[in-house]
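INFO  loader      accepted 1 record
INFO  loader      residues=176
INFO  predictor   begin
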Amino acid sequence: MDVRARIIEAALGLLAEGGEITQPRVARAAGVRQSHLTYYFPTVTDLLQAVARLSCDRLGSELGLASGRRRASLAQGMARASADKRRVRMMLGLVAAADRDRTLKPRMRAFVKELRARIAPLLKAGGLDVGDADLAFLHTVIIGSAVLQFARDNAEARREAGTVLERALQCIGQRS
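INFO  predictor   done
INFO  writer      dumping tokens
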């Protein structure tokens, strides 16, 4: 595994443990000098964005496996993926960073566009032909579901997320 990948995996590991993401902590966890980390990721936000991209890629793979199946299994796949605490911490970290640093807003807008563009073909493979408003609706439901699961952290929250996401896919499906 190359240095950049080790750094990203170390950041994911710290997020999984609920730890704070700082450059010194990530460098120690990755087994690299902080100068190596800052070479690849000059700021914590740059690192979080790389983690977000990796998370997005993994999410696409996870959902791609479920997309050819029934909508219920796609909804359950989305619920499982949104229950990943690392993913939710990363998302909340990016939101907080963008709130502190307004120059990140354009990068966040671009990331949201990219994420939605990746979701559309997965939904199409699941039999749903969606437009921009449908993607915005579903993305909002996924984010809300993820944050509520994270906050409540129990089986009831996970079941509810699956039900809510299934309902959201049904709403989109009625329009398709």
